[in-house]
Amino acid sequence: MEQTLIEPTEYLKNVFKADNVKSESEIIVFVLKKLKELNLVYGRDKEKVFLNQRPARTAEQILKDGYINGCTDDAILFIAAVRSFGLKPIYVEVIEKSWLESPMEQNTIRGHAYVEMDDILVDPQRKIIYIDPDFIKTRYIVFGKANEPFQLGLTDFKTIVQKFMDFKEKYQAEHKLS
After folding, report:
1. Which residue in 81, 90, 152, 178 is deepest, having the highest Cβ count within 10 Å?
2. Residue 1's pLDDT is what?
3. What is the predicted pLDDT for the residue at 118?
4. ω before 89 within 30° of 0 (cis)?
5. Which CATH architecture has domain 10-174?
6. What's the predicted TM-score (pTM) here?
7. Taking the CB of residue 82, how many other CB atoms lie within 10 A of it?
8. Handedness of CA 51, 56, 59, 61 (dihedral sign)
9. How confident is the chain (178 residues) per 10-residue block, as mean pLDDT?
10. Is 138 left (phi over 0), alpha (psi -120 to 50) or beta?
């Protein structure tokens, strides 16, 4: 089987090892706390790594590098960690409605990555658990849901910008905004 960005490797399983967590809610809370304890640096070498990164880093690479460049990295790491406990989270990429409805501007995007688990939504970057996953509909439009970003065609920053711009163009045409 081909390695994915979110494969729970042995290294990752050791970092997130816990014998006393059993339920899904205990696992989610444990992983969010552990991510906070890891004290990963945010935004290091963002221009160099995030904007030119091809392909995106795996969860293990993110941990070993010691830094996170954005919400996608947070989601990749969170998903791999909860998968190491046998859970089946879903990656959710969203785009801000206000950005979709604004004039077309190249190379600016406003979106976010969440993780869906059964009837809840987790924001790994902000360390927030939402009991009502429909809350995102107030501010965002769902771009796509998948096991990992690659399945949505989100392979690097340049591609993400292009996919978001294409989505925005279609959204504006459907809503007669352009």
Report:
1. 81
2. 37
3. 87
4. no
5. Roll (3.10)
6. 0.90
7. 25
8. negative
9. 69 91 94 93 63 69 88 93 95 95 80 93 95 90 94 85 92 86
10. alpha
Contact assessment for residue 94 and residue 143, using Cβ atoms and an 8 Å cutoff: yes
Place of tokens 């600016």: 108
Measured from the Cβ of residue 66, the count of other Cβ atoms closer than 10 Å reads 11
Structure-token match 């910008």, residue found:
161
Bridge-based pairing of strands 128-130 and 140-146 is: unpaired
Q: What single string gives the DSSP state of each residue in the chain?
A: ----TT---HHHHHHT--SS--SHHHHHHHHHHHHHHHTPEESTTIIIIITT-SSPPPHHHHHHHTEE-SHHHHHHHHHHHHHTTT---EEEEEEEHHHHTSPP-TT---EEEEEEETTEEEETTTTEEES-GGGGGGTEEEEEEESSGGGGT--SHHHHHHHHHHHHHHHHHHTT--
Taking the CA of residue 12 as centre, how many other CA atoms within 13 Å lie in the half-sphere pointing to its CB? 23
- Residue type at 153? G
* Rounded Cα gap, residues 87 and 80, in angstroms: 9
